[in-house]
């Protein structure tokens, strides 16, 4: 596999992002995996290294017209962001939101230009992003707009070798049923199959969750299994996708473990994500699934309460970096 170039962003500087970046890139074995372009305010990157008590050398560039990487040494594209007011460290703020949006947008530009083949970003905060001007409900759909991508996309979570996606995501619980459709479930299953193959799994085996208790008990507790989920699974099988279920939510993990399945498609945000986070909260990764370029981050938040204390555990962000590099190499 050709060594990919990836854009790396600090996330929210008011949280643990810069500390995590320092802890990951201070490891020579990780730096050797990819050509890394860090898009960041130099001061915040240096502050992250100071907090972590670990540092790495980098070369600073002012533009991307003539990029040259040497000896597994990252490049820093120093971002001169537009809102030069102090961050409110340890809390969400408009300043952080503006910074997050600007650095991520620059990372998307580099990938659109073919300079990088993927984006890895440290934890960000949706409240701060909305304070900074985000109009979408989450970063995934904002990425889709920047990439001019109008097809189906959804967040995909990964812990170790187990993947999970969902047919509905960041919506109120009361709206779940009216947002479920046969086509939507088929799209989610298809996206999971494509994403797993991009990550190197040649023949994915995908579990599908039921919506209702006990899988609906043949319509006694709800009929969405019969009217939506099972028809969607039949269509997925006709596309050559290997699907199993639908499994009741409280027995899905056991079915996955017994059947050695690779992934789970759930019907709403917390349905399988809760089990996945219990399995390995400090190892989890989020992939922005379905987009034309790979984008990944740690499956946890900014941990504002830990800012500046050198207490952040880097394992999830390290896993995100490793997975992103693998997917970027495949994309490149």
UniProtKB/TrEMBL annotation:
Enzyme class: oxidoreductase
Keyword annotations of the record: Metal-binding, NAD, Oxidoreductase
InterPro entries, A to Z: PdxA_fam (IPR005255)
GO molecular function, one term: 4-hydroxythreonine-4-phosphate dehydrogenase activity
Top-level taxon: Bacteria
PANTHER family linked: 4-HYDROXYTHREONINE-4-PHOSPHATE DEHYDROGENASE, 4-HYDROXYTHREONINE-4-PHOSPHATE DEHYDROGENASE 2-RELATED
Name of the protein: 4-hydroxythreonine-4-phosphate dehydrogenase PdxA
Organism in which the protein naturally occurs: Pantoea brenneri
Organism lineage: Bacteria, Pseudomonadati, Pseudomonadota, Gammaproteobacteria, Enterobacterales
């Amino acid at each position: 596999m050709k060594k990919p170039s990836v854009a790396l962003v600090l996330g929210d500087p008011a949280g643990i992002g810069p500390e995590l970046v320092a802890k990951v890139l201070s490891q020579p074995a990780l730096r050797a995996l990819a050509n890394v372009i860090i898009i960041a305010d130099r001061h915040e990157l240096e502050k992250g290294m100071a907090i972590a008590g670990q540092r790495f050398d980098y070369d600073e560039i002012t533009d991307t017209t003539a990029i040259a990487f040497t000896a597994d040494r990252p490049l820093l594209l120093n971002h001169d962001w537009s809102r030069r007011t102090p961050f409110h460290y340890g809390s969400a703020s408009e300043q952080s939101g503006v910074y997050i949006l600007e650095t991520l947008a620059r990372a998307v530009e580099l990938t659109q230009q073919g300079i990088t083949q993927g984006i890895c970003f440290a934890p960000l905060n949706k409240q701060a992003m909305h304070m900074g001007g985000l109009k979408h409900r989450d970063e995934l759909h904002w990425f889709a707009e920047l990439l001019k991508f109008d097809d189906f996309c959804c967040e995909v979570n990964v812990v170790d070798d187990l993947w999970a996606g969902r047919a509905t995501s960041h919506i109120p619980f009361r709206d779940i049923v009216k947002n479920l459709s046969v086509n939507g479930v088929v799209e989610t299953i298809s996206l999971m199959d494509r994403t797993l193959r991009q990550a190197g799994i040649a023949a994915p085996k995908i579990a599908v969750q039921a919506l209702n208790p006990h899988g609906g008990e043949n319509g006694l507790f709800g009929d969405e299994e019969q009217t939506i989920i099972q028809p969607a699974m039949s269509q997925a099988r006709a596309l050559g996708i290997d699907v199993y279920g639908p499994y009741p939510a409280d027995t899905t993990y056991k079915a996955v473990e017994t059947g050695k399945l690779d992934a789970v498609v759930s019907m709403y945000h917390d349905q399988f994500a809760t089990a996945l986070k219990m399995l390995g909260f400090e190892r989890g990764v989020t992939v922005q699934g379905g987009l034309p370029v790979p984008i990944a981050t740690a499956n946890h938040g900014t941990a504002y309460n830990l800012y500046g204390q050198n207490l952040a555990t880097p394992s999830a962000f390290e896993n995100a970096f490793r997975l992103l590099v693998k997917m970027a190499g495949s994309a490149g």
